[in-house]
Amino acid sequence: MKHWAASLFIIFVLCISIPSYGADIESRLKALEDTIQQQGKTIEDQQKTINALKGETAKTGGKTIESAQSKATGLFGSSVLSNPNISLVVNTFAYASNLTEEELELRNIPGYTTEGLENRNGFNLESAELFLFAPVDPYFNLYATIPVTEDGAEVEEAYFVTTSLPAGLQMKGGKFKSGFGRINSQHPHAWDFADAPLPYRAFMGGEGIIEKGVQLTYLPTLPFYTLIGAEVLQGDNEFLFGPDAESGPHAYTLFAKASLDLSDNSTVLFGPSAVTGKTKTGSIAEDTDFDGDSTLYGFEFTYKWKPSKQQGFALQSEYLYRTQKGDLSALDENGDVVSVDELRRIQDGLYVQGIYQLDRWRLGARYDVLDLFKDEYRVAGEEQEFDGNPRRMTGMLEFNPTEFSRIRLQYNHDRTARDEVTNHEWWLQFTMGIGAHSAHPF
Amino acid sequence: MKKYLFSFLAVLLFVTPSFAKVNAVATLPWIGSIAKEIGKDRIEITTLIKAGQDPHFAEAKPSMILAARKADLLMYNGLELEIGYLPRIIESSNNPNIQPGKKGNLDCSQFITPIEKPSSVDRSMGDVHPLGNPHYHFSPKNILSVAEGMTNALSENDAGNADFYRKNMQLFKDRLMEKQKQWSSRPLKGKKYIAYHKLFEYLANEYGFWILGYIEPKPGIPPSAGHIQEMIGLIEKAKPDAVIATYIAGKKEAGALSLKTGVKSVVLPQDVGATEAAQDWFSLIDEVFKGLE
Ligand SMILES: [Zn+2]
């Protein structure tokens, strides 16, 4: 265990929560007297304003209410029209593992992906993420997410959302996070842990399904919340599809989410998702190329109990199940095809996480596992055997000074590489946001 | 079988409320209470935030989104009090009638003059409300304007019942004037209090009492031991009449201060429904006055 990460965490938390003693009561009282005098003056001023307004109302015969209609609502913030709402979220962390950087880079999940871990021992900058949003006109809202990393800026999301379609319909278009599953549509800074759950990393890569395309959702007026959605996507995701799998859009999703309030304080949300499409990827095994079809099914479940601002509990789980069939080509070092065999993969994975919140503290635990019920991996009809289940256990402790800042200590007991090596990972993560107020989604 | 599936889809697509009542959705209990005074039994009211929940920190629950989907008229507090969840609820509702600028979208704060609007603000000052103090529902004067605005909005959305709404508005106004006289005779002038959050400033301005300090060092930030120590010093020097908190914020801290200093602590309802006695807006204000005396 790396003691320095834990001690740093404690130091930071203490710095924030330890009181500043010795504040001078006398000077405070003086300030207070000034305030009271000021308040008295304010009241006088206000009375004057009230009197003036009364006179005005009498003159205009109560027309003041209509003219007040044009005041800014403050619903979308106080900014002027010439600026969209802008916020910046910086996500930076210190990372420590018992493995060397080389070992981390090579730490893939055999049978799933050749991709290793990107984190470096020491200080890491995940990104400085820029969010922009505003209504375009009475018909559209516009959003953009631009994470700036050390490699440069990219357009992670840029999409419009309709606001005036009838019959409970809404359309989204551009580049956006798919509505598939639960965590997929959340931004990493809103996650409850520093990294993506294992099934996400195994089936769609750590970033999830972010695609160019269109989405249509339908919210019927049933007695309980039911959202139904469908998407047509370009299919750029390197794990599930790949840009060269077919020309034109070649990925399609369907999802439904239902929710019930069990009481004023507790809510459940659950529903199935599916995404299917053409696949062409080199991420399955070293020196291979795969050409075929993939379908990923998911089921999400969330339970939240929030009796007060001071306390809360959330239990969340997603189960993913992927089928894939097609031709796996073995390549030589020049990239030429040596042999072609049929590949059939039917694999699954699950994560379960629980978060308990007390005042400004949050304590969390997560368990991820792959090959839970299904671990079929056949090349030319022959089952390939892999040792053990890739799995991981995670513990997390957070201190949130305000809703705009977060300090997180996380430990992963990582047994994903199917070898005898355990990766002990530690994070000390700082996430802070400035600018426009971000949403408190469920 | 096909027939059943088809009719199920048809039901799914064209479910509409079978009654013609205006479906009004209020974010906060007090807004629902005023709407009830004006709309009586001719409107259906759903309240999104319950009395036991803090309106500063609510989440956009799916049930709230569904309520907004069914709404003809969405009424909210404004002044950025609901900024954390209401924009999300409105967008996700897939309901064109309640979008900003539409007649089904009613920001109640447009009818009032906010106080304490900071001339400059950043978040090192805590989660300050940048458009001014949003807790204007304790102000009888402001509530009258809000009720008038609400009457206009209801009449606009449901012209057939406009006279009914106007008549109820007149009744509401008469009752408010009556109550105002009672409230003005209450002996609050010159009294001094320590409060948890900046909730009662409108009432203090209108009825001439003082709030000397706040247990919360900055809006939305819980007090440190040092700040509590400072408060004890302040209470001992300034001898306020009471330390006030609400059922959702500061109850524990106010109780502790009271124990340390001997000054009584009072827990007030922060919205309609927070206590059994505060069952509508009038009794809410009655309860607050009772507590402050
Ligand atoms: Zn407030």
Task: Outline the structure in words.
The complex is a heterodimer of chains A (442) and B (293). Chain A is an alpha+beta fold and 442 residues long. Chain A is built from five helices and 18 strands. Helices cover 15% and strands 50% of the residues of chain A. The longest helix of chain A is centred in the first third of the chain and has 36 residues. By secondary structure, chain B is of the alpha/beta class. Chain B is 42% helix and 12% strand. Chain B has two domains: 154 residues, Rossmann fold (3-Layer(aba) Sandwich), CATH 3.40.50.1980; 106 residues, Nitrogenase molybdenum iron protein domain (Rossmann fold, 3-Layer(aba) Sandwich), CATH 3.40.50. The interface between A and B is large, with 73 and 80 residues. The complex binds zinc ion. The site of zinc ion (ZN) has 4 residues of chain B, from loops.
What is this structure's SSE topology?
The complex is a heterodimer of chains A (442) and B (293).
Chain A: H1 3-17, H2 25-60, H3 64-68, E1 85-97, H4 101-105, E2 122-137, E3 140-149, E4 152-153, E5 157-162, E6 169-177, H5 198-204, E7 210-218, E8 225-233, E9 251-261, E10 266-281, E11 288-308, E12 311-331, E13 337-358, E14 361-379, E15 382-383, E16 391-402, E17 405-415, E18 423-435
Chain B: H1 2-14, E1 22-26, H2 29-39, E2 43-47, H3 62-69, E3 73-76, H4 86-92, E4 105-107, H5 140-157, H6 162-184, E5 192-195, H7 201-207, E6 210-214, H8 225-238, E7 242-246, H9 251-261, E8 265-268, H10 281-292
Parallel strand pairs in B: 1-2, 1-3, 3-4, 5-6, 5-7, 7-8
